[in-house]
Design a protein that fits this description.
TIM Barrel, alpha/beta, Urease, subunit C, domain 1, 3 domains, globular, 21 strands
Length: 520
């Protein structure tokens, strides 16, 4: 099977200026890129006149680990030009699974109705292969999942035997081809780990020359200290590649810390470390609603907390603690998705708006949702500076990520943050007056490919896999918002994954030709 794209404006992903030309694809790979190319009579010819052709976008920060099994069409991702997703972020990967974490993971992902029957990366990869996804999947090994596979989710100091077991599981996953190690030090049980524990794992990772990606211990009040911890752990273990997940300055009082944060990164780079990051181009983050919980409930995993709050006395105690937040807090937290009875009618609304509509107090509504759906309820938290988001996105070492799961066009698997359908067009729009177009495309293609070891993707060059996006840059935009988050990007004409059409704006027949990728 072959096809020839002619007369497109080609930006090859390397950062060099584009030009009008042709790309010939044979099978899964690019056969040639240049001008005045010819193909045999059996090849389809695609007219790219007045359109831009670039490598498929690589989602540097995805959470499609389980949703890709439930929604293998990955409509929200491929419709905005994504052809490869990096999953296993924030310390939460779909492997390794043991009797210590299987039940918890099954509960965490219950909305997807997928049986977690596997244990290792290879077995998980076989499930991905079986579902025939529309996009490529490359998985990091998550620290939280690793730790829980050995010790569960409770706060505890690790014994020597437990430490050795965690390191052995990590080594196995990396040998099987995991893209690197991720941590989520804001979440249970990763938050219980100290720097020494991280350093031991990074010592194993260092032998594979793959990245350590981290959801920092703090993205706000202790942002500088958290970056310093990550840099120190890498330096002390011989791990040279550090990748900061969704780099941000969270909370208005922390907006002024960006210069100091970047200074720490520059010092690490000067000392020989390779420091990169990803970001999404929105001022509202999204995570579990349970992240709003104050101490001591923030040390409980969601499944355990849901059992705890089922007791009426505990429920009232939690309500009283939530009532201590100032009224402004409820103006900045937005319900995105939940299976709690009747509450998805308010998806996209702030808790202040929901409280007014229901004539109830926001803390009680919040506690009721957590009581019904602590493991699944998702919320958006406003607290980022638009200027800082733009500045972070423009940094030469920052790639674009959605921080979202693959979703279908409908809401059958819940509602997405708008970034799940719009991150890449919004990223382009954010930077169009700041950076040349070829540099914006580099940050969405060859940069994340280099970070995650995808040597044959992210560029339009002979021999590379034919992951390609043909689009109208003048129309490339996203209509998705919190009220209607599943609106596909505008301007995308055709997306090819591994040489086969995976998305077409005119809804012509498309196949699913993604792969589960492992590293050598």
């Amino acid at each position: 099977m072959s096809f020839l794209i002619k007369n497109a404006f080609i930006i090859d992903g390397t950062g060099t200026p584009g030009s009008i030309g042709d790309v010939l694809v044979e099978g899964e790979r690019i056969k040639a890129a240049g001008s005045h190319l010819h193909a045999d009579k059996t090849a389809e010819v695609v007219d790219g006149k007045d359109l831009m052709l670039c490598p498929g976008f690589i989602d540097a920060h995805s959470h499609s680990d389980i949703s890709i099994l439930a929604a293998p069409e990955a409509y929200g991702k491929i419709s905005q030009g994504v052809t490869t997703e990096i999953v296993g972020n924030c310390g939460l990967s779909a492997f390794p699974v043991s009797r210590n974490n299987r039940e918890h993971l099954q509960e965490l992902y219950r909305n997807y109705d997928v049986e977690i029957s596997w244990s290792s990366l290879n077995e998980y990869g076989a499930e991905i292969h079986r579902c025939n996804p529309a996009v490529n999947i490359l998985a990091l090994c998550g620290h939280n999942t690793l730790r829980a596979a050995v010790t569960g989710y409770e706060q505890r100091e690790l014994s020597g035997r437990q430490q050795a077991a965690i390191l052995a599981l990590l080594d196995d996953s990396l040998r099987d081809g995991a893209a690197g190690l991720s941590s989520g030090l804001l979440y249970v049980p990763g938050k219980f780990s100290n720097t020494e524990e991280l350093q031991r794992m990074l010592g194993v990772l260092a032998g594979f020359e793959r990245p350590y990606t981290t959801h920092l211990r703090s993205e706000g009040n202790l942002l500088i200290e958290a970056i310093e911890e990550a840099v120190s752990a890498c330096a002390g273990s011989g791990q040279r590649q550090l990748h900061i997940s969704h780099l941000k300055t969270a909370g208005e009082k922390n907006w002024g810390k960006l210069d100091a944060a970047l200074a720490v990164i520059r010092r690490a780079a000067a000392a020989g470390s390779s420091v990169t990051a990803d970001c999404y181009p929105y001022i509202e983050a999204m995570t579990q609603l349970s992240m709003i919980l104050p101490d001591p409930y923030d040390n409980m995993d969601d499944v355990a907390f849901q059992k705890f709050i089922a007791d009426e006395q505990n429920f009232m105690t939690v309500c009283n603690r939530l009532a201590e937040y100032p009224p402004r807090r409820w103006q900045t937290v937005r319900l995105v998705n939940t299976v709690a009875d009747g509450m998805n009618a308010f998806a996209g609304k702030t808790f202040e708006q929901i409280a007014a509509a229901m004539q109830n107090r926001p803390e009680i509504i919040c506690a009721e949702i957590l009581k019904a759906d602590a493991a699944g309820a998702m919320a958006a938290f406003q607290g980022m500076s638009p200027e800082n988001v733009k500045r972070i996105a423009s940094l030469p070492f920052t790639a674009c990520g959605t921080d979202e799961s693959a979703r279908p066009e409908d809401y059958s698997l819940g509602r997405s943050h708008p970034r799940g359908f719009g991150s890449f067009p919004v990223f382009f729009a954010l930077l169009k007056d700041v950076l040349p177009l070829e540099e914006i495309i580099r940050k969405c293609t060859s940069l994340p490919a280099a970070v995650f070891g995808l040597k044959e993707r992210g560029r339009i060059v002979s021999g590379a896999y034919a992951d390609l996006v043909l689009f109208d840059i003048r129309r490339f935009s996203s209509p998705a918002d919190f009220a209607s988050p599943h609106k596909p990007a505008q301007g995308i004409r055709t997306v090819w994954v591994n040489g086969r059409m995976g998305y077409s704006a005119n809804k012509s027949a498309c196949g699913r030709s993604g792969k589960f990728i492992t590293l050598d």
